Amino acid sequence: MIDSFYDVADIANLIKIAVAPVFLLAGIGSFINVLSSRVARIVDRARRLEELIESRQAVESSRGELRIQVQRLRLAGWSVGLCVTSALLICSLVALLFLGGLLHFDPSEALGLLFVLAMCALILALLLFLGEIQMAVKHTSVGRTIRRK
Length: 149
Fold this sequence. Notes:
By secondary structure, the chain is mostly helical. Helices cover 86% and strands 0% of the residues.
């Protein structure tokens, strides 16, 4: 049975410990925002390329670029999914931290595992993001007019 009385100092200590993961959540949220903006731009470009293909304008070059946009979209989508997974693991960590304190059990091993899994998901998300950025840079057509002169 749960005791109805908790030491305020213990709860205050739990809140202090939970602050770091909450800041991590804020960072992951910002990263998801960046990724969402990139996904929106990729989708907009892909739609424009599909319009060009349907109107039979620059069909071959548009198809090639559309393939690249689809690959970028997959990378960005997986990156968003892994960021959300990481955030969910961090939320679970905070909840378990409080449950352990309130129900008086030691969740240390589970907390460590959740943190490692969250970091692995975040690392994979960052690597996919790096891949998407590299793909975008490699296939950009910015600067053609400068090279022609």
